[in-house]
Amino acid sequence: MDLRNIAIIAHVDHGKTTLVDELLKQSGAFRENQAVAERALDSNDLERERGITILAKATSLEWGSTRINIVDTPGHADFGGEVERILSMVDGVVLLVDAAEGPMPQTKFVTSKALALGLRPIVVLNKVDKPDAEPDRALDEVFDLFVGLGADDDQLDFPVLYASGRSGWADAELDGPRRDLVALFDLVVAHVPPPDQIAAQNGPFRMLATTLGADPFLGRILTGRVESGTLRTGMTLKALSRDGAQLESFRVAKILAFRGLGQQPIEEAVAGDIVTLSGMSKATVADTLCDPAVTDPIPAQPIDPPTISVTFGINDSPLAGREGSKVQSRVIRDRLMKEAESNVAIRVSDTPGGEAFEVAGRGELQMGVLIENMRREGFELSISRPQVLTRDENGQRLEPVEEVTIDVDDEYTGAVIEKLTGPRKGDLAEMKPAGQGKTRIVAHVPSRGLIGYHGEFLTDTRGTGVLNRVFHGWAPWKGAIPGRRAGVLISMEAGQSVAYALFNLEERGRMFIGAQEPVYEGMIIGEHARENDLEVNPLKGKKLTNVRASGKDDAVVLTPPVRMSLEEAIAYIDDDELVEVTPGAIRLRKRFLDPHERKRQARAAG
Questions:
Q1: From its phi and psi, is residue 67 left (phi > 0), alpha (psi between -120 and 50) or beta?
Q2: Taking a C-beta distance cutoff of 8 angstroms, is the pair 487, 534 a contact?
Q3: What is 331-398 written as a DSSP string?
């Protein structure tokens, strides 16, 4: 059977996974009566809830006499560690672009890597049936993007399809019949080159490991594309690191191939196949699995370094152990090490004392997803404020800088530019109208300046702005960046919060808790309206007397409290504060719960 290997590239929410659903349906990958969930490839609970692809996944379908292997890549830059290696498995890419939004940061990030590998793209303008779609403008922006990324003449001569993934059609013309996806299937078969199987099958077996996983029955499993030779169950292979050192020798226990949404065991795989192997114990992503006679590893894309770090510690608050079952530092360490094994974009290291662990990754969203998964598994944690990772080159201190793309109503552009280029030390790179009363702003901002900015951004734009960010590069350290300006309200008592007390505290600032919620000494219960921290008593009840008067006993009506998501809480806290994460709650607290210690630390900080 002929083979085609393609990856689908798209920004968050441009319809990539929905389009793959339709491709699977129309190719006959599902039975007629089979119940299939929407966004079938988003198998992870968090992926379904958030509507984003977090893990790179492969699937395959048959179109006529051709088998098409499709890789669904993550759409957010924080999970880009997957994308960079996935592209080495494919011979072509489908670039999916929202016809209203045009190419966005993640599109640019992944497309630059695809073009550098020499892959020829197919451009699909999705959601052209939306009222605000501007396919001609989006197509011009795609062409300009390719030119800016240094595409060659063959790559610039790309075919274009107009599509609606949700409705299940794609046509070569904007006013086409709009019936099905046959045009896309035929274009993939005609435009994407097949693997060079004849030349490759004669050589010794070689395969580059691109994704790592774990199976409760098979143990460590690695997925990749067979570069040359033939693979059979029971063969003895060796693993080579990127620098050519031999890591281990192992016997192939099982070979799994992608068939529809699942994987099926096969006895033999040939060059060009995308397969999963088991049997190794040390080999990992970017290693070469090969015949014992092979001495040179396959060149692998280096993994981009992490840009931020967060400290994971045990939950030592007075409410510890009430909701979670996994609270010991040993258990937390084992879970983090297991995560670092399967996710090469994350690094875990012990801190002095061994009670806390420093986890370095790509961004706040990646950290938030890891923490959310752990709390659902029953862990209780305390999380510190994210810190950017710096590096020294030629005696100069460098820090990570991100490219921020913002779509905002014209009336709010001034406030956004002032915040980004002022206290947050960003540089304005581009500003242009985006149609329908909106402006697109592109700026290069230090990662430090973006920690905690998203909530402020939504306030400044009345919730209408859209902010996307992607790692841009390293730049000289830009000096001090002011943190959160407002102070916090700290509980000075332990017990259950009282509505009467919270009602009287509302004039001091906005509250993070409601009535009848557990609080403890040192817990942050709200944001102070001024810059200093204030210790308050949320347990203070109304003093009762024998005298009753009209109007004195009206019911207390509280303003609804601000409920932060996990990412918002992590970005909100200051250096001397922690986020307490349990299966049932997200709380903020001071790092030092003892009031005397808090005051001593405050004096020491100036």
A1: beta
A2: yes
A3: HHHHHHHHHHHH-TT-EEEEPTTSSEEEEEES-HHHHHHHHHHHHHTTB-EEEPPPEE--EEETTEEE
Beta strands in 113-271 (DSSP E): 121-126, 160-164, 169-171, 206-215, 219-228, 230-232, 236-240, 246-251, 254-259, 262-265, 268-270
User: Dihedral, CA atoms, 513, 514, 515, 521, nearest 10 degrees?
Assistant: 0
Q: What is the pLDDT of residues 332-383, one digit of tens each?
A: 998 898 888 777 778 888 887 777 899 988 777 778 888 888 988 899 999 9
Q: Structure pTM?
A: 0.75
**What is the rounded distance in angstroms from the CA atom of residue 119 to the CA atom of residue 111?**
9
Residue type, 274: I
Where the chain has pLDDT below 50, the residues are: 33, 35, 37-40
Contact 569, 580 (CB under 8 A): no
Q: What is the rounded CA–CA span in Å between residue 210 and residue 222? A: 7
* Interacting residues of 429 by C-beta distance below 8 A, sequence separation 6+: 403, 442, 443, 444
Q: Say which residues have a Cβ less than 8 Å from residue 6's Cβ, sequence separation at least 6.
A: 68, 69, 70, 71, 90, 91, 92, 93, 94, 188, 192
The number of residues making up the chain comes to: 606
Beta bridge partners of 264: 257
Q: How far is CA 444 from CA 144, 276, 461, 471, in A?
A: 20, 39, 20, 9
CA dihedral sign of residues 71, 75, 79, 83: positive
